[in-house]
Amino acid sequence: MTSKRFKKLPFKTIDLPAESIDKLLSVVKKNCTTKFDESVDLSFQINNKQKKNEINIRTVVNLPGGTGKKVKVAVVCEDTKSSEAKSAGADIVGGDDFIEKIKTGEMNFEKLICTPGMMIKLSKLGKILGPRGLMPNPKLGSVTDDLKTAIKDAKSGQAEIRNDKDGNIGVSIGKKSFTDEKLIKNFNVILETLEKEKSNNTIKGDLIRSAFITSTMGVSYKIKLGKSI
Fold it and tell me: What pLDDT, on a 0 to 100 scale, did the predictor assign at position 196?
């Protein structure tokens, strides 16, 4: 059943012409009529000229304006590195005992970082961590001995960009309470990251067919991209 709040939102915005991000932000924010600080989210569709199942985009980007979200970070490491992880701000730190807890399904964290030496043990939990997107990955900076940097990045505003099997990419650029300037900076960094991923995947032609912006409980608008990616 459609709520009274939702009925008051603009109708069939999908049919409107694409506009630049700076023009759309004020409209999207105006539609944030809930009592909480809604997220401002992007949705990209990979160009259908590509074979979607052959495109594998998965990377992380440090958003200059942050995400506005508090991330609970867990670290699996050797006992000798526990104090370093705790000092860097990790919410949960452990070794073999922690791995056993994860094995039983105890996963009260949003980000998992692991040292290379412990990754051999943790990799056996792929069926548990993988489907939840929690398995550490060296390419994403979450398998490292530099725990201080990895924890700082995860806490300060790191967003993961990955496409699903249908060729969709969804990522948040912040909150309604963010200034437009901060949201635009985050948006531009994501576009730059996608441009780099296009080169890394040796993709022919444009990578993105369409892009949309919305808020957590709002409606979508087409984005006119400033550059061909």
Answer: 87
